[in-house]
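Input C-alpha cells:
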C-alpha cells in the first residue's frame, strides 16, 4: 500500500517562497471536493516557512524550514474531531471534510505543529492535503513542482526504491518534534539547523596576526570528542549541539594549545581566539 510523504532538505531551502505561492495559487478561490474548500487569500499558510536566525554579529546563520501538514499517522486532529469530520486515507493523507468540519474550530488548537487554520468566512478548519486532488490525477503536489532548489521531495515512504525512502536512510532524515509521538509522514534533513545549537570561533596566530588555517579543534562533552580543522579564514564550527557543558581545545604545532570551557545555552560564537607561539 502506498504511504505518501515528504522529505524536506532544510539546507537547500533559500526562502524563495515558491512553495508558499504555488500552494496559494492552487487553493485560493478553488474548491476541490470532497477534500477541500477554497482557501482564503490571507491568513492561511498551508505550506508555511519557519525562519531560524542563530548566532550574533559577526557570525550569523539563518535557516528556513517549509512546514506543511505532517499527515500524522497518530493525528491529534482526528482525536479532536466530531462526527468523523477528519479522517485518514489508506495512503496516509489526513483530510478535513469541508462539509462535516464546519464549526469545529477546536481542530485548530489540536495541531501541535500549527498546521490547521480557521476560515472565518466559511467557519471551517483547513490545512494542506498533499494536493490529493492532483495525486488522483497522476500529478505531484504543487509545492514540490514549484520548488526550484529541489528542497521538497515527494514519494511513497513504503517503497524502499523511492527517492524519499532512500533519502531517509542515506541522509538520516528525522521528524520534527518526535516527542509529540504523532508519527508524521514528513521528514527533514539537517533539522538541527532549526532545533539545536552551534559553537564556532576564529583562530588567529598571535605572532603574525594572520588567520590560523589547519588548526585542530576538538570538542569534548561527557567523555566523547569530535574533531575538525580551521579553514583558510581560521574559522571552525561544531553544529547540532544540545544544551550542556563542552570543552574546545585548539592545537597547532609550534603554538601553545588553548582550552575553552563552554556552558552552552544558545548558539555561541567565541570570536577571535589567539594562539601564542610556544
Amino acid at each position: 500500500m502506498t504511504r505518501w510523504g515528504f522529505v524536506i532538505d532544510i539546507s537547500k531551502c533559500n526562502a524563495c517562497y515558491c512553495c508558499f505561492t504555488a500552494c496559494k495559487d492552487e487553493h485560493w478561490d478553488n474548491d476541490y471536493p470532497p477534500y477541500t474548500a477554497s482557501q482564503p487569500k490571507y491568513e492561511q499558510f498551508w505550506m508555511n516557512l519557519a525562519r531560524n536566525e542563530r548566532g550574533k554579529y559577526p557570525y550569523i546563520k539563518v535557516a528556513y524550514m517549509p512546514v506543511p501538514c505532517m499527515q500524522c499517522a497518530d493525528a491529534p486532529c482526528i482525536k479532536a474531531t466530531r462526527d468523523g469530520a477528519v479522517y485518514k486515507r489508506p495512503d496516509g493523507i489526513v483530510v478535513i471534510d469541508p462539509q462535516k468540519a464546519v464549526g469545529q474550530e477546536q481542530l485548530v488548537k489540536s495541531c501541535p505543529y500549527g498546521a490547521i487554520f480557521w476560515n472565518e468566512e466559511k467557519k471551517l478548519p483547513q490545512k494542506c492535503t498533499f494536493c490529493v486532488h492532483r495525486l488522483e490525477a497522476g500529478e505531484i503536489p504543487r509545492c514540490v513542482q514549484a520548488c526550484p532548489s529541489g528542497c521538497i521531495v515527494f514519494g511513497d515512504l513504503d517503497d524502499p526504491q523511492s527517492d524519499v525512502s532512500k533519502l531517509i536512510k542515506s541522509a538520516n532524515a528525522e521528524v520534527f518534534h518526535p516527542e509529540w509521538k504523532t508519527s508524521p509522514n514528513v521528514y527533514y534533513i539537517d533539522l538541527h539547523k532549526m532545533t539545536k545549537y552551534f559553537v564556532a570561533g576564529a583562530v588567529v596566530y598571535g605572532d603574525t596576526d594572520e588567520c590560523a588555517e589547519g588548526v585542530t579543534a576538538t570538542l569534548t562533552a561527557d567523555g566523547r570528542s569530535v574533531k575538525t580543522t580551521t579553514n583558510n579564514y581560521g574559522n571552525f564550527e561544531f553544529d547540532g549541539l544540545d544544551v550542556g557543558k563542552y570543552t574546545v581545545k585548539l592545537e597547532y604545532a609550534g603554538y601553545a594549545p588553548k582550552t575553552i570551557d563552554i556552558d552552552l545555552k544558545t548558539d555561541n560564537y567565541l570570536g577571535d581566539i589567539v594562539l601564542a607561539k610556544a
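The chain has two domains: 4-194, 197-275. The helical segments are 18-27, 76-80, 106-110, 132-135, 142-146, 163-170, 192-195.
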